[in-house]
């Protein structure tokens, strides 16, 4: 079990910080969703989470239907040895981070221009804003980067860092929105309600407007969040080891399998309950245990894991393809039944009294 000081720090984390921590511990990647009007503030918040909480350099990719493979490849790099946001050429909120270079195709694995990658490395945290709007080939390139943890240059292979997190930042929707295989590769999804606030962004604003909050240090001892993060690499590795040691009893494992079965046969589900999702379900349940200072997974942790694993995967069936139509159901009645039903509704139905029975 983790020491009390680490557990205390974990309990102080916000929802976005916990989502990032879970992915770093599990060595996986995630989808963060929010309202369209709040997406720019969420970008700023996630950048501060990467920098202040985990001490990791980040890169931002602002995707659109015009984003090219070369744009994507160039934007994921950060200046090696330069933690400053303002000095990074990939800082792209108002100034363009796209550089004109020859287009390459992922299928041929053509290299990125070497002149751009000199003295640069792939950022530890990549925030892909509106990734669902990017062309299919760009999303495929993102999937290749996550799966292989490398990208090709003209003279070398640029590896991703050991601590590597890719965040697909989406807005205004539910269910699958990325390409099939990329969507299935994403570990968890989380919706951040703007009403929950942006604590790191608000703290930065307050610090910038309050002279009393300025901490004076001796020369050479200035605070650097990349050197003194709130959650260190050692602590992330400690939680990762505890995750590997976490156990799941036969009864709890059976409950997990029943949830999967109920999801697959639910009349509103057309697909998305894949084998990869099941593997992620297993991993997340064990990952949540040490975060709650437990050495084993409980039924409540299994239910919590289901709520994070499946919302971005579940496809809601079209009324005309709902299985009871094979036996003569009325199309209008089925359409009325399915109206307004989303992935979260399906999950709550399965976790409720009409779904899998919770072990005592």
TrEMBL record:
Q: Which organism is this entry from?
A: Amylocarpus encephaloides
Citing just one GO molecular function, the answer is: magnesium chelatase activity
Any idea what this protein is called? magnesium chelatase
Superkingdom, natural source = Eukaryota
* Entry's EC annotation: 6.6.1.1
Pathway entry: Porphyrin-containing compound metabolism
Q: List, alphabetically, the Gene3D superfamilies matched.
A: Magnesium chelatase subunit I, C-Terminal domain
Q: Locate the ChlI/MoxR AAA lid domain: which residues? A: 263-323
Q: Which InterPro entries match?
A: ChlI/MoxR_AAA_lid, Nucleic_acid_metab_PIN/TRAM
Name any one Pfam family assigned in the record. Answer: AAA_lid_2
